[in-house]
Amino acid sequence: MASRPRFGGLSLESGFALHRAGKLREAAAIYGQVLQANPKQADALHLLGLVLHQLGDHLKADAFMSQAIRLNPKAPAYRNNHGMVLKALGMDTKAVASFRAALQLDPVNADALANLGGSLPWSSREQEARRSFRRACLLVPAHDEGLASLGAMERATGHLDRAMVAHRRALTVQPLLAARRLNVGSCLVEDDRYDEARGYLVEATLLDPALPEAWSDLGFLLMGRMQVTQAERCFRRSLAIRPRHGPAWAGRAETAYVAGDASAAVQASQRAVELDPANPHLRLRLGMHRLATGDLERGWVDHDAMWRKPDAVKRIGMPPRWDGGPLGGKTLLVTADQGVGDELLFASCIPDAIRAAGRVVLECDPRLVDLFRRSFPDVFVHAYERGGTRIRPIQRYDWIPRELVPDRMIEAGAMMRWFRPTVASLDAAGTPWLTPDPVRVAEMRDALDELGPGLKIGLSWRSMRLTETRNAHYPGLAPFEPLLRVPGVQFVCLQYGTDWEPELRETDASVNVIPGLDTTADLDGVTALVAALDGVICPSSTLGWIGAAVGRPVWLLYNTPMFLEFGTDRLPGFPTVRPYRKNQPEPWEPMLQRVAEDLAGWAAQSPDAG
Predict the structure, then answer these.
(1) Residues sharing a CB contact under 8 Å with residue 241, sequence separation 6 or more, in sequence order
(2) Quick one: which of 138, 200, 212, 601 is 20 to 30 A from 253 by CA?
(3) Would 129 be classed as within a structural domain?
(4) CA distances (Å), origin 238, targets 72, 212, 250, 274, 312
(5) Is the pLDDT of residue 609 over 60?
(6) Structure confidence by residue, pLDDT tens digits, 215-252
(7) How many domains does the chain have?
(8) Dist. CA 231–CA 250, nearest whole Å
(9) What percentage of the chain exceeds 70 in pLDDT?
(10) E strand segments, 13-53
(11) CATH number, domain containing residue 571
């Protein structure tokens, strides 16, 4: 935010009146006249620099403001506004120094405090930036720019609830400013609160139809509801206003991807990354789009942006990251960071790590410790020690024995880059990788025998975390009705999370529940049950990877394209997984009708078939 200096002289006052009225070129002409009469008039130099900055000529603005500061180094407004010019020139370090100089001269300058907070690197100076913003807003409670910038920082650093509070406060200060409505709506979209978000975003487009961010965020809202055609129109409208608007290109990548055109998604994602190369989320999505086309080499490189996202785990006491070089005689630490399903999936690379490194240390979700110790007896397995918060997790490594201090580390999800560089290498490695508890497998077989004759098929229908966006990837229980009517099959519940028992009761579904098995907490027991079943039918979830890991038939239900297909129509590296694919906007019922027909054929051929 610009600061107004004190100055004298009728001509300068008339220039400032024009300046304040938005008549920038006319104001610049008057400032120029003042300088013709007195080239050392510091206020005129500064104000001409400010006009040039507002007109977009930041280099000339820098020159005039620098002259003004040399003539009057004690003016805090000069320092503050010069900092804004330096920031516009991409000279953030010098901008921070200029804002600090303004605050040394005027410690209660709210504009300089807000500008300082906006110029600090939020990823490494989050606390200092937050203090600057909050102090600015304490000094001037209606400082809407400070509030909006505070909201932007909180959102960028993963504190969406705090961002919402700040943006709502800014909106009360400027209720008719489109950008303030946009900020609230954008946070609501990110929080999957689409009904509430839509009103704010539509109002933003009405208040300022030329605001590209409002159109792109409205497009993402529509994408979350699978209104792909309407979303594409919004993204195109955003780009018609600002052809270099990166988020709109990212949106077009997602509409192409959902429509089944992974190659077009790559092209649009590349454009988005070119426009915002430091954005790890855009780079990650480009990686996933590339993987979906079969471009594993570049896809895995881009996928590495996963661990540069603001919500990535912060690790205390890490050795250098493994770069794919020789590991003979070295100790490799394989770290956990994503969900338990991802840990199970990427554990398929642990046998490769054992062969490559002298020693392997593996951290994992506490629920997986016994299973991983049994499956990888030559590996030191330990539950991760996680602190911080859900959105800013921190993991420490002082639990590693001194004799196993690692030489290199790698995230579990990053191992595929080095151990699965091609589809051929994926297929060659496609063998079961987990060892269930044989005693519990026998117990589970006894429990299944009590259900009577027929195929014993495990079933799940959704994820544990339910949001409107995620729900597009999970059918729910109702579309499974055709399967549940197939004769000669005993269905066994593998659903995990909360509130699935009422779902079973409400639908009167014929799905058996194994007494005493906690399908959320007891993953070792779930693995034993899956190993005892004839097969598993589920959407892409933890259960699918457990089935693949123990070599049981898995009928996986998912939207295509999916990056784990790697440009094929199957899942390379997972030979027991049978894909059932559909385009994302399509309903689940036709797919599940096909599954029911295939299941009926399998049941008819079963030895227990009547």
Answers:
(1) 210, 211, 212, 215
(2) 200
(3) no
(4) 44, 4, 12, 17, 30
(5) no
(6) 999 999 999 888 999 999 999 999 999 999 999 999 99
(7) 2
(8) 12
(9) 98
(10) none
(11) 3.40.50.2000
